[in-house]
Design a protein that fits this description.
By secondary structure, this protein is mainly alpha-helical. The chain has helices spanning 21-28, 32-41, 59-74, 79-117, and strands spanning 19-20, 48-50, 54-57. It has one domain: Multidrug-efflux Transporter Regulator, Chain: A, Domain 2. 61% of the residues lie in helices and 8% in strands. Strand 2 (48-50) and strand 3 (54-57) form a beta hairpin. Helix 3 (59-74) crosses helix 4. The longest helix is centred in the C-terminal third of the chain and has 39 residues, at 79-117. The N and C termini lie far apart (39 Å).
Length: 119
């Protein structure tokens, strides 16, 4: 699934391994209680739970959340429709995910190049 246009306005995903629910909330422009609800509705979304049931999301989870957000808020899918769309995209999702990762890496490399040029 291609990223929707509004996802380009979302912040760049930092190069961290784990993100707290608050960080993901800011990265995806979705409130934490919505993220917890989506965990129940979308089986693809499985954050790691550690001490005290604290959630830690990985980069893959953030990408899935952005896809869910685009389906629901921008394309007008219902929860059930978005779930079906994600399930059908799982088959072809690897290619799209690779494109998103390449886009992210390119942005990060351009930032590094700008830093090096300014020295």
């Amino acid at each position: 699934m291609l990223e929707a246009s509004n996802n380009n306005e979302l912040p760049v995903i930092p190069g961290k391994r784990y993100f707290t629910i608050g960080e993901v909330s800011e990265l995806c422009n979705v409130k934490p209680h919505v993220l917890r609800y989506w965990e129940q509705e979308f089986p693809q979304l499985k954050p790691v739970k550690r001490r005290g049931n604290r959630r830690y999301y990985q980069r893959q989870d953030v990408i899935i959340i952005r896809q869910i957000r685009a389906l629901l808020y921008e394309q007008g899918f219902t929860i059930g429709g978005a779930r079906q769309q994600l399930e059908s995209d799982d088959v072809k999702g690897d290619a799209v995910q690779s494109q998103q990762i390449i886009r992210q890496l390119r942005t990060e490399l351009e930032e590094v190049l700008d830093i090096l040029k300014s020295r």
